[in-house]
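Exam revision sheet. Question 4 asks you to relate a sequence to its structure. Input first:
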Amino acid sequence: MRLLKLDLKDIGPFNEGHLNFTNEDGDYSPVTIITGENGTGKTIILDAIRTLLMGNIKTRDIFRNDENSAISCKIQIGNDLVNDSIKKHLKRKVYPQLESISLDMKSLGSKFVSINEGGDTWIANYWTSQTKNDAFAISSLVSIKPEDYLRNALDGIQSNVEVTALITYFDYLKTSDNPKEKQEGEFLFNILKDIIKLSLNGGEFLYVERKTLTPIVNQLGNEVAINQLSSGNLYLIQRLISLLGQMYSVYILNPEIALVDLQKHLAYY
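Answer key, structure tokens:
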């Protein structure tokens, strides 16, 4: 999935805004960097994209108090173009409490708020500086639900429990008596180890303590539980492991996808 064009009308500080994510030849860059001074609307652009995909976002209302507020876009999904068909208008009546929202997302937006039945070969994720304060501990092994891989993917806050659940599941999978599952588990676990090694200065992943289902890492010669790492170290680890979980889910939902592609695309991110 690639965003090709974004149009804003009466959104945040923008009376009217048009962004093309392709050049004059129609080629796109793999990364778009938005710069500007404080208050110029950089985050509004990201929130507008999330609103198109999710409907209402929980963080804030980016629409103005008039009926002309609208967001539209052009998205490429595989070889198909969704041309300006995802649009959100805000219609306010006489009384603010009677505000109503009209949203046309077709089938795309529903993937982020309901169960995904599979068939998609793309993922989406949103990172913010916000962290979640939930515990890392889990009481039992949790199996991955591939069809939920897009649910809450654009909230911007990574669950600690989800990270522990993914690590312990991959650890469990690599010890399977089923040769195919074992091969998948070993492959995923090696990527997991690479993520932690690259994210920690002088650190590496050691093992999952099976009695407590606690991931243990080596940091500067000391064995520590993953929840004892600093928030800075955890930030990248959490989000990359979440991406790995999404990629694995897409692979499960689309058996024709080669598992080896996971490592290539994760390295790209």
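Marking note for examiners. The first helix runs from residue 42 to 54.
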